[in-house]
Design a protein that fits this description.
The chain is of the alpha+beta class. Helix content is 46%, strand content 14%. A hairpin with a 4-residue loop joins strand 8 and strand 9.
């Protein structure tokens, strides 16, 4: 029987890996016997580099982790740093942060929908999704001056206030996005080939998901209603009404449905924030200019946040100096990827692309 097994490499240069991922796959005919993810091709030593500069400097490395949801990464870092330094953040700044990370969640999921469609042989969803994502990027450009890597959140608040023009752009976007999303939803759900290729494929049981430390949409698609915004609220999420979508099936199609509903809930959150956004300072003025803060910190802190991929957090240890002694990243894509072998075993090689794509991995935060 051993003579019948062959080993092939999927990646690291493959358009469906969503990054430089290599999977060593052992096949019996066209059935997967074993699969081993091989990572490290994008390693940039972000954690050690962050320990070599002042606390604000680390933001440029955090931006480049999940680079399609940079603001979510920035939020995890500033919350951990502010807890370590015991810094109070003005209410307006916290509401602004909430609004922008939810828009960034939608933008991240839109990238997944578009590229996932390409992985399944569908070209049209890519254009629909990137059309809507472009509207979000124009909002970010107006607020932060950048379209991808923002360096906008600051220890103590945000770097600049949102403009009236940006608020109007957000209102316009939220006003018709759900209608646009229904168009995208129809392209997938009415496609018999897509539904057939994703239903019952790449199944991950709740027991295995918990065992491997899987979080985010993948965990919720396996039946666990766990969202840090609900279960361990931060910022002002406890004051916002939204639902946590879950599915019991644990397959690729369930992950599609969960992310679809998550975008609708994010728009619901943003609409509520627009009605609650208070006047006031966008930065704690006690600490001079946002990017020049030189506070000494002593102790340790960790604040988990719900990024588009799952639980993202940064563990900081301060030794009384102006630079972190230890900077450790808990990235959801890394933990989610560890479940690859159990998700692929027993399925056909043709199912590998759909399964890996459904994880939505971003390798900036896997290899870091």
């Amino acid at each position: 029987m051993e003579d019948k097994l062959i080993e092939v490499n999927f990646g690291p240069q493959h358009p469906s890996t969503h990054g430089v991922l290599r999977i060593k796959v052992r096949l019996d005919g066209e059935y997967i016997v074993d699969a081993y993810p091989v990572i490290g091709y994008l390693h940039r030593n972000a954690e050690k580099l962050a320990e070599m500069g002042y606390y604000p400097k680390a933001m440029i490395y955090v931006d480049r982790l999940d680079y399609v949801a940079s603001l979510n990464g920035e939020l995890g870092y500033v919350l951990s740093a502010e807890k370590l330094m015991d810094i109070q953040v003005p209410e307006r700044a916290q509401w602004i942060r909430m609004m922008l990370v939810e828009l960034n969640r939608v933008a991240s999921h839109l990238i997944w929908f578009g590229t996932h469609g390409l992985d399944m042989g569908m070209l049209t969803p890519f254009f629909y999704c990137f059309r809507e994502r472009e509207r979000i990027l124009r909002i970010f450009d107006e607020v932060t001056g950048s379209r991808l890597l923002y360096n906008y959140f600051a220890i103590g608040g945000v770097y600049s206030d949102v403009t009236p023009k940006a608020i109007e752009m957000i209102r316009e976007f939220t006003g018709n996005f759900v209608t646009k999303l229904e168009e995208i939803e129809g392209i997938f759900k009415k496609n018999y080939i897509y539904v057939k290729r994703t239903t019952g494929v790449g199944k991950l049981s709740l027991e295995d998901a918990l065992s491997y430390g899987v979080t985010g949409p993948m965990l919720r698609a396996s039946g666990k209603s766990w969202d840090l915004r609900k279960n361990q609220p931060y910022l002002f999420y406890k004051d916002i009404n939204f639902d946590v979508p879950t599915r019991p099936e644990g397959d690729v199609y369930a992950r599609f449905l969960v992310r679809l509903e998550e975008m609708k809930q994010s728009i619901k959150i943003v609409e509520q924030i627009l009605t609650k956004l208070p006047e006031g300072d966008f930065y704690n003025k006690k600490y001079a200019k946002p990017m020049l803060i030189r506070l000494k910190a002593n102790g340790e802190s960790y604040v988990p946040t719900e990024s588009p991929k799952g639980e993202f957090g940064i563990y900081l240890v301060g030794d009384g100096s102006t630079m972190p002694y230890r900077f450790r990243i808990r990235s959801p894509s890394f933990a989610n990827l560890s479940a690859t072998p159990v998700m692929l075993k027993g399925y056909k090689i043709a199912d590998l692309t759909a399964t890996v794509s459904s994880m939505d991995p971003v390798f900036g935060e896997v290899d870091r």
